[in-house]
Specification:
12 strands; alpha+beta; about 160 residues
Length: about 160
Amino acid sequence: MSLRIGDAGTKGRGVFATGTFQPGDLVLDYQGEEKWIWDIPENLWQYTFQVDYDKYILPKEGSPGWYLNHSCEPNCVILGRTRLVSLSKIEPGEEVTFDYSTNVGWDGYAMECSCGSPRCRRIIRSYRYLDDGLRRGYGACVSSFLLRVRESASESTEQRKD
């Protein structure tokens, strides 16, 4: 893995590339024990990676998964259940980021954003609250459990039309 933990300014610590990643390269596969959210101390929730409704992976403390930051203009996307792949070319020294909204299905989730992107949304919410353009742009590059819900909602809409 060509990653290191480093200073990410106002965001605290972050994950940085030590080598070059081409679009579509595997950057990180979240590792850790899968737990129900209520089995994880609340002060650790900020470090978790959601893999299903109420199920999360708590990465090993100090690992790249522990420090991966959000960006409203990420250079990585989620593929499948736990894999992050590069969306664009990532150069050595560049911070590795993904959009937390593509991984969160909890309606009550809200986080103040400090990503610094010109397209910053200021408040990060669950996937359901992303505007239609962003959801279309991400396509299938969101957590797989969110895709199941999206497909179910589409099927329900289609059935109501019949």
